[in-house]
Specification:
The chain is α/β, with parallel strands linked by helices. It folds into 2 domains: about 210 residues, Up-down Bundle (Butyryl-CoA Dehydrogenase, subunit A, domain 3); about 260 residues, Pectate Lyase C-like (3 Solenoid), CATH 2.160.20. An 11-stranded parallel β-sheet has the order 1-2-5-8-11-14-17-20-23-25-26. An 8-stranded parallel β-sheet has the order 3-6-9-12-15-18-21-24, with no helix packed on it. It has a 7-stranded parallel β-sheet with strand order 4-7-10-13-16-19-22. Strand 1, helix 10 and strand 2 form a beta-alpha-beta unit. Helix 4 packs antiparallel against helix 7 and helix 5 runs antiparallel to helix 6.
């Protein structure tokens, strides 16, 4: 960002229950996916019939027509699918070249589009790897290597997931493809930080467009289902109630208990005084099993741990908890000014799915003069943060990608201190702007949605926005970082220090594009008045309850699937 206890019941997935669920729903899913196919080709069939009818009318006679060849049918079907993408010409030319069986099945066409994206990103990654050690932008290229490898891993997961396709899987695919695009954009951001985008030229264009086309195809399938209101659609989409329970449903019942327990039994205990299994968190991280479906618990005793940690993408379902957000503190000071790319400045970073943190503090103490200095970065899908503290100055919390949920956390910073392109909901958190450097202003959020079909954005609900210190600088709720930036603040208390205009442009004096989506709903406090807010085309005012409900836990991050019932106070919707 630019300046200005542990038992088997705690396993994440209960195989018996999962198998039973699949058995009960398999028949319905077959019906649904059959409907997907029918609906996807319905427009093509109707068009063919209408053309045939018009020809008959024009000739004023009946005639028998030779059925179109398989190749012709395939071409028509492919054009219908590609028409829904942002890059239809590339979609058609690239997929038709690989569609050797002339299939009209949109699922298979989608799989082909995924293979194209995988091949192009692999080629790009290989090209960039060859440039390392030959340029001064090596650290930025290292970021590219990391995020492109993650993108490939995500795309391969997506391809595997198409073997048994269901509506929940479609939601997953939309999330993962959104992340793939974000990963590529992160590479560009890293190069841009050091003015080295020339190294990549336009070689990022096609990989990004291939990923975008795949996202468009899967997004439009969902759109058709929603439009025709296929039975069981609402239940599978998680639009029903959760009984007024706690976390979104992608946290299992075992994980709920882990979050609620005062002292869940850990696999590893970290203690600076030597009373645990390790004296550093880094030692504990080395013990995390790879790609485990079972929850791995790390307990960190009170103390200040000055170290940087990364939980790689292969480290699944890890929970780390401490003795309190003011007692167990992880601290670092990596920063951009001293030569570290923003992406790698994080004191603590997680990429593996299913990460949970509770009663911990994560800080970056580099100071405002060091500019970008991240306290915590998360690219973990279905990640949960409960009663944690994130503290730094610029770029404090990097909600990079995938689905994330923050409950009763404190986030403190100055410039763009909540940023990234995750689908993220903050609920009942304390958001605390602090005094920046002289002549700086404070921007709370900077959201990075790049593609209109990405299911990403920042949702701040029932939070308190209050000053951390003696705040004198101008404060804005945020600024749109990318062309489709999406941020909603609702049912929150906003302090008087927020400027009446509310929001500010990314580039001074240049109104952001109308494609952004910024809104406020039912906020309170002296800074919540809407009368003086920006008049941008992309700022939605008034904003209805129906519109706001799209950004709740239940709808925005499909929380009814991955954060099930809990005793922790929680509102599923508004």
């Amino acid at each position: 960002m630019d300046t200005n206890t542990f038992n088997n019941e705690y396993e994440q997935v209960d195989p018996a229950k999962d198998a039973e669920y699949r058995k009960k729903t398999r028949k319905s899913l077959y019906v649904i996916m059959g409907s997907v196919f029918v609906l996807a080709v319905l427009a093509v069939v109707i068009t063919s019939i209408m053309v045939h009818k018009n020809n008959n009318n024009n000739n004023n006679k009946s005639s028998s027509k030779t059925p179109p060849s398989t190749g012709t049918s395939s071409a028509v079907a492919l054009k219908a699918v590609c028409k829904e993408t942002l890059y239809p010409d590339l979609c058609y030319s690239s997929i038709s070249a690989l569609n050797l069986k002339n299939t009209t099945d949109p699922e298979e066409l989608f799989r082909i589009s995924l293979r194209l994206a995988i091949d192009s990103i692999h080629s790009l990654s290989t090209t960039l790897a060859a440039k390392k050690d030959t340029t001064s932008a090596n650290k930025a290229l290292e970021v590219c290597q990391v995020v492109l490898d993650d993108a490939l891993d995500t795309l391969n997961d997506s391809l595997s997931s198409t073997e048994v396709l269901s509506l929940p899987k479609i939601h997953d695919l939309k999330t993962w493809l959104s992340t793939t695009i974000t990963d590529q954009d992160t590479c560009l951001d890293a190069l841009d930080e050091v003015n080295a985008t020339a190294l990549i030229g336009d070689s990022m264009t096609k990989p990004t467009q291939y990923a975008s086309n795949s996202l468009s195809i899967v997004a439009k399938i969902l759109g058709v289902l929603a439009k025709f209101d296929v039975p069981v659609n609402r239940r599978l989409l998680g639009i029903g109630h959760t009984g007024g329970h706690g976390f979104p449903e992608w946290v299992s019942s075992g994980d709920r208990r882990l979050l609620q327990q005062a002292n869940p039994r850990p696999h590893v205990t970290v203690a600076k005084d030597g009373t645990g299994d390790c004296t550093t968190i880094k030692e504990a991280v080395k013990r995390i099993p790879k790609k485990s479906n079972n929850r791995f618990v790390i307990y960190v005793k009170a103390g200040k741990y000055v170290e940087n940690n990364l939980l790689e993408k292969s480290m699944w379902n890890v929970m780390i908890y401490g003795d309190g957000k003011d007692k167990t503190i992880v601290s670092g000071s990596l920063n951009f000014i001293d030569g570290t790319p923003t992406f790698h400045t994080a004191t603590f970073a997680v990429a593996g799915k299913g990460f949970m943190a509770k009663d911990m503090a994560f800080k970056n103490t580099a100071g405002p003069q060091k500019h970008q200095a991240v306290a915590f970065r998360s690219g973990s899908d279905n990640s949960v943060f409960y009663r944690c503290n994130f503290e730094a100055f610029q770029d404090t919390l990097y909600a990079h990608s995938n689905r994330q949920f923050y409950r009763e956390c404190d986030i403190t910073g100055t410039v763009d201190f909540i940023f990234g392109n995750a689908a993220v909901v903050f609920q009942k958190c304390n958001i605390r702007p602090r005094q920046p450097m002289e002549n700086q202003y404070v921007t709370i959020t900077a959201q990075g949605k790049k593609d209109p079909n990405q299911e990403t954005g920042i949702s701040i609900q029932k939070c308190t926005i209050s000053a951390f210190d003696k705040l004198k600088a101008p404060v804005y709720l945020g600024r749109p970082w990318k062309n489709f930036s999406t941020t909603v603040i609702m049912q929150s208390n906003i302090g008087a220090f927020v400027k009446p205009v509310g929001w500010i442009e990314w580039v001074s004096g240049v109104e952001p594009p109308k494609t952004i989506m910024y809104a406020e709903y039912a906020n309170t406090g002296p800074g919540a008045a809407l009368g003086g807010r920006v008049k941008w085309a992309g700022y939605k005012a008034p904003f209805s309850a129906k519109e706001a409900s799209k950004f709740t836990v239940g709808n925005f991050i499909k929380g009814s699937r991955w954060l099930p019932a809990t005793k922790v106070p929680f509102d599923w919707g508004l």
